[in-house]
Amino acid sequence: MDRVTCAVPLHVPRPSGPWPGVRENLSRLGNALVCTTWSEWLPSVLTTRRLPQLLGADWPRYRRTPDAAVRYRFAASRLLIKNTAAAALAVPPEDLDLAYRLGGRPYLRGFDQIELSLSHTGDLIAVGLSRTGRIGVDVEPAERPVRLELLQTQVFTPAEARELASLPENERPGRALRLWTLKEAYSKALGQGLRLGFKEFGFIDGRLSTPDGSAVADGEWGFATYPVMDRYLLSAACHDAGLSTAGDTSAGTMLDQGFLAAMTDTAPR
C-alpha cells in the first residue's frame, strides 16, 4: 500500500471561506487540514446572531466561561470545526451536532465515518478532518524554545537522539520541535494523547520507526509537517483504515437515511 498523503493546510480567514479546497482534498486524499487565527474569526463570534444555534450544545459552556478571551477562543474553535465539516458535507453548520468522546476529542453525531482533530496554540487554531480513518493534528510556534537535554532523556528514542546529534547545533531545535509535533499528532490520532510513551516510537526521515531506528510498515499512515501562517508548525498524522468510503462526502451519502430525515426536518411528525 502507498503511504497516505496528508493534505496541505488551507488558511481560511473567515467563516465565509474560501472552502472549495476542503471538499477537494477530502475527496482526493481522504483528509483535509484547515488553519486560521482566532482573532480573524473573532468578528463573527461577536456579531453573528446565530451564535447559540451554531454552538448548539456548547452554548451553555460558552455562556458560563468567565474569561472573555478564553470564551471567544472557545467559540472560534467550535465555529471552525463546524464550518469545516459543513463545507465538506454540504450542510449548514448549525445542522451539525458536535459532541465529545472520553478525553475531550470532538466528533460529529451521526457521521461515524468522519474523524476530527483540533489543536491550538497562541493565536492559531487548526482542524483536521478525515473520511478514511483516524487523524491527529498538532501545532506549535515555530520559534518555541526547546530544552534538548530534557527531550532527549524523556521524549526522543535513541535513534532520534543520534540523528539530532549529527546535525549542526543551530538546526537541532527546529528538528526537535518537528519530532515533538509529529509524536503529538500521532498520539492524538490514536486517541492516546500524552498517555502514549513517546520513547516507544520515533520518526526517522519522516517515517514511523522503532526506538532503534528500524522502519515500521506504515503504508496505512501518512505523516507531514508544514509551516503555517509564517510563524507556526503544523504536523499531521493521517490514517487509511482501508474501509470503503463514498467519494461523495455530502450529508446525503454519509448519513443513514433515518438520521438524515430527522436532521433535515423531513421526518414524519
Q: Classify the helix fraction into a percent range.
A: 25-40%
Q: What is the total domain count?
A: 1
CATH topology category name:
Ribosomal Protein L22, Chain A
Low-confidence stretches: 251-269
N-end to C-end Cα span: 48 Å
**According to CATH, what is the class?**
Alpha Beta
Write the CATH architecture name: Alpha-Beta Complex
Spatial ordering of strands, largest sheet: 1-2-6-5
Shape: globular
Q: Cα-atom Rg, whole angstroms? A: 19 Å
Category by helix and strand content: alpha+beta
What count of helical segments does DSSP give?
10
Major beta sheet summary = 4 strands, mixed
The CATH superfamily label reads 4'-phosphopantetheinyl transferase domain
Residue-averaged pLDDT: 87
| Tally of strands | 11
What string, H for helix and E for strand, traces the elements in order? EHEHHHHEEEEEHHHEEEEHH
Protein name: Putative phosphopantetheinyl transferase
Keywords: Transferase
GO molecular function: holo-[acyl-carrier-protein] synthase activity; magnesium ion binding
InterPro entries: 4-PPantetheinyl_Trfase_dom, 4-PPantetheinyl_Trfase_dom_sf, P-Pant_transferase_sf
Topology overview:
Layout: E1 10-11, H1 20-29, E2 31-37, H2 38-47, H3 51-55, H4 59-64, H5 68-89, E3 98-100, E4 106-108, E5 115-121, E6 124-130, E7 135-141, H6 148-154, H7 158-165, H8 172-189, E8 202-204, E9 207-209, E10 221-228, E11 232-239, H9 251-254, H10 257-263
Parallel strand pairs: 1-2
Antiparallel strand pairs: 2-6, 3-4, 5-6, 7-11, 8-9, 10-11
Helix pairs in contact: 1-5, 2-5
Organism: Streptomyces ambofaciens
Domain 4'-phosphopantetheinyl transferase: 134-211
InterPro entries: 4-PPantetheinyl_Trfase_dom (IPR008278), 4-PPantetheinyl_Trfase_dom_sf (IPR037143), P-Pant_transferase_sf (IPR050559)
